[in-house]
Amino acid sequence: MKETECIACHGSGMQADDEGWQYKCSVCDGLGLVAAEREHGTRIMSVDENNRLLD
Length: 55
Ligand SMILES: [Zn+2]
Prior knowledge:
Bound molecules: zinc ion
Number of domains: 1
Distance between the termini: 31 Å
Helix content: 10-25%
Strand content: 15-25%
Radius of gyration: 17 Å
Mean pLDDT: 79
Number of helices: 1
Largest sheet: 2 strands, antiparallel
Low-confidence stretches: none
Structural class: alpha+beta
Order of helices and strands: EEEEH
């Protein structure tokens, strides 16, 4: 599955509150990555799989 950088934590996996306390990003669960929208990923994959010249 294609993944993209988490917008909420900018890929760090951590967020900080107003007092400077850091905690695990709730959007990506600390991974720093989130699954890209299915539509885009599917398009790219199907192109790669069919990238052959038919003679
Ligand atoms: Zn995140």
